[in-house]
TrEMBL record:
Residues 14-98, 111-201 form the Cyclin-like domain. This is Putative g1/s-specific cyclin d. GO terms for molecular function: cyclin-dependent protein serine/threonine kinase regulator activity. Keywords: Cell cycle, Cell division, Cyclin. Residues 213-255 have a biased composition (Polar residues).
Length: 255
């Protein structure tokens, strides 16, 4: 890319995440959409002024692929503050599909979570662990450095981080989680442990940022990074915690 930089990607990802939250999309839509964004950016040079259009189109495609209720074109146009048109979304949808050779059945970390929880024997707190794991995966999708991790590794680390953050008895002892995940996924334990640590650092940073006094957030990841401001009730609640110093101790966080 000649214009798009990692900080711009993060702004775009945060906007896309907020759109998914506002539209009550399923957890898998946002990571899937970011997968499309990264794959497209790896193949095609994109201008900064086209970045939000790309994000909106990837959300549209991901919602079609992963849910029974796709996002409406009118809603996406609204969330871009009318900086794009429905016609542009349709044209770029075809462009993205063409550039990705219509290979849209991407495997993302969310696809592994339920299987891993089943194999680990997590029962009583399974819904909580699942919710936290999906939240960690979505948070990781906003950071460019996590794109180097395979979906199975990211899923394993997110599940491990979620379990380690719950101070409650589980069917699978916490000290055996990483070893069991290694046996299931054939991902080395030290890689899982390192990824868990990276997630914890990201969570700590995010907790600290969200505990700062409220400030303006951009709605449109444009060249200036500031076009239309989001209202305060659009801020994601996934990082709202009272214990920023222990990022994986999140049993009391309502994700």
């Amino acid at each position: 890319q000649t214009e798009v930089l990692p900080p711009m990607r993060k702004v775009l990802a945060q906007w896309m995440s907020e759109v998914c939250e506002e539209q009550s999309c399923e957890d898998i839509v946002f990571p899937c959409a970011m997968n499309y964004v990264d794959r497209f950016l790896a193949r095609t040079d994109v201008k900064k002024s086209q970045l939000q259009l790309l994000g909106a189109v990837c959300l549209l495609i991901a919602s079609k692929m992963r849910t029974s209720r796709p996002l409406a074109l009118e809603a996406l146009v609204y969330y871009t503050d009318y900086s794009v048109t429905a016609e542009e979304l349709k044209a770029w949808e075809l462009l993205v599909l063409s550039k990705l050779h219509w290979d849209m059945a991407s495997v993302v970390a969310n696809d592994f979570v339920d299987h891993l929880l089943c194999c680990l024997g997590v029962s009583g707190d399974r819904a909580t662990v699942r919710r936290h794991a999906h939240t960690f995966i979505s948070l990781c999708a906003t950071e460019y450095r996590f794109t180097s991790y395979s979906p199975s590794l990211l899923a394993s680390a997110s599940v491990a981080a979620a379990i380690h953050g719950l101070n409650r008895p589980l069917s699978c002892p916490r000290n055996e989680v990483v070893t069991t995940l290694e046996q299931i996924t054939h991902v080395e334990a030290d890689q899982i442990t390192q990824c868990v640590q990276d997630i914890e650092v990201l969570m700590a940073t995010s907790f600290a940022a969200f505990q700062q006094p409220p400030h303006s957030k951009v709605n449109s990841p444009s060249t200036s990074y500031a076009s239309t401001k989001l209202s305060s009730n659009n801020v994601p609640s996934t990082l709202d915690s009272s214990q920023p110093n222990t990022p994986t101790d999140v049993q009391d966080v309502n994700f």
